[in-house]
Amino acid sequence: MIRLSDIGEDALIRRLIRLVPLDPAPAAGPGDDCAVVDPGPGHASLQLLKTDALVEHIHFLPDAPARAVGWKACARVVSDFAAMGGRPERFLVTLALPPQTPVAWAENLYRGIGECLTRCGGVLAGGETSSVPPTSAAVISIAATGSVRREHLTLRSSAHPGHALLVTGTLGGSRLAKHLAFTPRLEETGWLVSHFKPTAMMDLSDGLARDLPRLALASGCGYEVERGLLPLTAGCTVEQALGDGEDFEILLAIEESRVAGLLAAWGGEFPELALTRIGRLVKAGDGDSLHGGWEHFAKGLAK
Amino acid sequence: MIRLSDIGEDALIRRLIRLVPLDPAPAAGPGDDCAVVDPGPGHASLQLLKTDALVEHIHFLPDAPARAVGWKACARVVSDFAAMGGRPERFLVTLALPPQTPVAWAENLYRGIGECLTRCGGVLAGGETSSVPPTSAAVISIAATGSVRREHLTLRSSAHPGHALLVTGTLGGSRLAKHLAFTPRLEETGWLVSHFKPTAMMDLSDGLARDLPRLALASGCGYEVERGLLPLTAGCTVEQALGDGEDFEILLAIEESRVAGLLAAWGGEFPELALTRIGRLVKAGDGDSLHGGWEHFAKGLAK
Q1: Range B29-152 has CATH code 3.30.1330.10
Q2: What residue segments make up the domains of chain B, in order of their start?
Q3: Cβ A35–B125 below 8 Å, yes or no?
Q4: pTM across the whole model
Q5: For residue A169, which of A252, A71, A72 has the smallest C-alpha distance?
Q6: Distance CA B195, CA B203 (A)
Q7: What is the tens place of the pLDDT at every residue in A8-65?
Q8: I want to staple A80 with a disulfide (CB 3.0 to 4.6 A). Which of A33, B162, B229, B232 is the partner?
Q9: Which of B4, B23, B143 sits opposite A101 (nearest CB)?
Q10: Nearest Cα to A166, choosing from A285, A267, A35?
Q11: Could you tell me if A25 lies within 8 Å of chain B, comparing CB atoms?
Q12: What are phi and psi of B271, to 5 degrees?
């Protein structure tokens, strides 16, 4: 019998989506950071849809502060809207919690969600609470709508060979602290799509080694990474930068000719956040082959 | 320390929603079957948002057929759209499963979701998969968008004292089979809002004894139920009809003067599905007081 741990998340998703009706005319193909819905030609904005889940023991430990867990659950979704050039709007929060959970824990979780919504400009539109058996892990699932102006929509699939690859911030070591307290790059991506619109963009949730191949594949490209250029979090190795995951930084592609102008303008706009050229897209079949990163359902969980 | 099992679901939700930013101008108040979003005066339809979750051991047993679990997870959401006079559109499916779950189980779950979407007219727009620890319960969380024509929107909160109360189908005994195989009353509610628009409507998920007080409270009313009129599932008692839950039938209020016409027309339109007058709304503070029904987080779970 084949089990989920035998095939991994990407293969599982490919098998599952064959079994259900899909949008016959999607505004963007499946597999991007969010689903994109076109409300019709008279509308300046497209709707974005996203769902994401945090599981106790997998994405956070039982002793993690509930407020930080709530922030993280909400910020992960905001990060996906940012990665498409959009903004968050309405949130649906599902809590599946053991009955012995302290009410104060749930309240602090919601305080963290509320802080993130206030900071990023979303509102709670609805929710669901359910018990799980007393020995089961808590699950927090957040679905949300967002919006993006048509001309700002930035997919994973629209880059070409020769485009430069850049990342915001530093990579690696997220689990020490940042994974519970990261700031979604909403302001930065809003600036990018207005001033130096990338040819492709995604947020780094599973590690560069897993996420970059996804962007390259979606764009029909290969990729080359200059490991010596990777912006490492202090104390981290290249391998950690590639594989730790949960950086929630932005990976973007842009025409080589625009890189110098972008870097100069970025330094003036966001002096405290690095933007680093790390490599380039190449023809499909050429370039590097990265391995590692976070894999759900894997045998011997990496974290 | 106060725990979730001490306060119950409704009290928990009241405490939580104070802690987050809410829509400053919602198209409908909180606490209805779905959230309602008004896209602006030029639009004939409103958007509906809903999220719902199924938890192993709570909403289904480990030996339940995965295909039926998938159908149920999807049909519960469709039922909420139906209860507001709307239709389902785009679905986001989150699976949080133990790593040893057979791939075939997840595939059969998705087949059930696909059958429900095909039957009810929705599409999959996105999803999320995550592992849970090997000993944790599986959680299936489904969020979806729907739409409702402005003139068809039917809330819980718009009925008045004196309006008659009716239910579709029969009540009680759902856990024997129906809870995994029910048909959302989408066709029936679509007909109702076009021909005999109710003054209030909701779907019965937690049992009439718990759900009717919610509708009455939302409408600022009390209620009277004629127990002898309750349409009982074969072999069920009145107490089961009131308290079992998961009937997924429709509870509706309508002006007393329109009941005879509605019942006559209904019999011609839906000859195989009962529609039964069970009581009426009265002034707030008057009438009956029902107790029981399904309570999440309760000590000594009722089912």
Answers
A1: yes
A2: 29-152, 164-283
A3: yes
A4: 0.93
A5: A252
A6: 19
A7: 888 999 999 999 999 888 888 677 889 999 988 888 999 999 999 999 999 999 999 9
A8: A33
A9: B4
A10: A267
A11: no
A12: -65, -20
